[in-house]
Every structure is written in C-alpha cells, then in structure tokens.
Design goal:
alpha/beta; Rossmann fold; six-stranded mixed sheet; globular; disordered C terminus; AB_hydrolase_1; AB_hydrolase_fold; AB_hydrolase_sf
C-alpha cells in the first residue's frame, strides 16, 4: 500500500482499483474515526468489487506520520481532496465513521463539486460537552503516535 503527499502530509492509502473505476461503478473514499485506521473498512471492501474503494489513514493516524502540524476537521477534509487530486478522481462518494462522519459532512458542505454522496456512519455530533472528551482522546491518540514514531526511529 502506497503513500500520497497531500498538503505537506504523507498519507497512507489503499486503492481497490488503481487502474480506475469499473465501468458500472462509483468511487468511494473511506475516512476512519479518531484513534482508528483505514483497516476499519477492510472487511467491507471485498463486497464492493464493482466500485473503486479508496481507504486512507488520516494525517497522524496509523501509518500516516504525525509531523506536529495541527489536526482539524477542515484540514483532514482538505487532505482528502488532495488524495482525490493525486489519484485524478474528479468526484467520489465520501464515507466516514465517527469523527470521519464530521469530515464527510465538511467535505459535502465545503467541496460539493467533488462529492457525489455523503455517508456518515455513527457520526460524532460536535457539542461543548464533548469538547473535553474529544481533546483527551486526541491527546491519547497523539501520545501513542508520538511514542510509535520515537520507538520506530530508535530501532
């Protein structure tokens, strides 16, 4: 599985049909939730062989390294557009789970010309109550990413 450069981020991704979308299918791009990875969607991909399916480890998650740039929903959405651009995909159905649901909502609102459909699976609802919970979870995820980066660079 290769990497794509998007907005100065190295993003790990997989592509079920790198040669392009099958004639009768559509392109789907899948965005995982906070603390997850593109692997979340791997059990689904074999059931969508008539479609091109792109999965991405968002910036700072799993195999996509964290480089101390701030992480935000608009930033992740811009990275997704960068992936579509790099793969020469004009339009896609965007699918997101949990925090990825916020990202696909942002994509639909900010880039409607690039989105042919939005599928939000158990999306997180932004609220003041959840801010501290999400900040703690993000800190834990980033701590793990930083630990993994330091540990792997010392091997």
């Amino acid at each position: 599985m290769p990497f794509i450069q998007s907005n100065h981020h190295s993003l790990h991704y997989s592509d079920s049909h790198p040669e392009g979308v099958p004639s009768s299918g559509q392109t789907f791009i899948f965005i995982h939730g906070l603390g997850s990875s593109q692997n979340y969607y791997f059990p689904v991909i074999p059931h969508l062989t008539a479609h091109r399916c792109i999965t991405v480890d968002t910036y700072g998650a799993a195999r996509s390294p964290y480089t101390n740039d701030p992480i935000s929903i608009p930033g992740i959405a811009a990275d997704v557009i960068g992936v579509l651009d790099a793969l020469d995909i004009p339009k896609a159905v965007v699918v997101g789970h949990s925090m990825g649901g916020l990202v696909v909502a942002e994509l639909g609102a900010r880039y409607p010309e690039r989105v042919s459909g939005v599928i939000a699976i158990g999306p997180t609802h932004p609220s003041e109550t959840l801010v501290s919970v999400m900040e703690k979870r993000a800190a834990t995820v980033l701590e793990g990413a930083l630990y993994n980066h330091v540990a792997s660079s010392q091997i």
